[in-house]
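Forum: Protein Structure Q&A
Topic: Joint prediction for protein chains with partners

I've read a bunch of threads here and the consensus seems to be that you should model interacting components together rather than docking separate models afterwards. I'd like to see that in practice. Below is the full input, 286 residues plus whatever partners are listed. Could one of the regulars post the assembled result?
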Amino acid sequence: MDYSNLRRQIIFMKKSFFDQGYLDEQFNQLEELQDESSPNFVEEVVALFLKDSPRLLINIEQAIEKYPQDFYRLDSLVHQLKGSASSIGAVRMKNECSVLKAHGNDKNLEGCRRSLQKMKREHATLKQKLESYFQLLRQVGPRNSAVNSRK
Amino acid sequence: MSTGPELHVLAVDDSLVDRAIISRLLRSSKYQVTTVDSGKRALEVLSLEREVHMIITDYCMPEMTGYELLKRVKETAELREIPVVIMSSENSPARIRRCLEEGAEEFLIKPVRPSDVSRLCSLLLPTVAMTMAMR
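Posted by a regular:
Agreed with the consensus. Here's the joint model:
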């Protein structure tokens, strides 16, 4: 197996996530926490996020679509989603949460709907990109996946 | 680190993702960690036999906020000496002031970084270790 080629691909892929604004420095911080005792830490945390966030998105939609709208609950849900997105370095999602929060505070229903649709797309894209990334990493194996961008 | 009993940190956060992260941050600094998802569960852990040497808690939690947990800890004779650190995504001076006035040792802005946690632990836990050694 050509590890050097795979490693190049991985580094390039990760760089593109940063260049296109999907991820920020927080993601690097998490990768730095990986070691022999926790070699797949980032993948595990991202998996937790991807498992937990759909529920939040559904609840956000319900808060918007029910009548009367529950803007209070919406704010709380978006706050939660923003927090977890921020914790894994998912900066586009974090920013869209700020937009959604602002629309909610203005009680701008159409704004909320548009923002939520955008959020769902961002979520799907992020999921697809990160899952490809981790799949590549798994091919290289934990020993060879020193993809710290500081190197 | 030391030959004595290991230092035990209680981490409180309602977010699954953040619990995983704070737990890893603390474990990589070689501390024993217990994570719970609410202030209520934190108080349950604190009432058990096993000693807790530091509490690190999120501010925004349903039912009991980190601030309310801080107050409960500081109001309880057996618990008030335990250093409490608050984490929050909101950089609100009023909130920070209130927590520090209530006795929090530190207020960290989320997302919490490894350097924040190691700085914190080296700040607070040697004092605890010293206190333990003096008993």
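The beta strands of chain B are 8-12, 32-36, 54-58, 84-88, 106-109.
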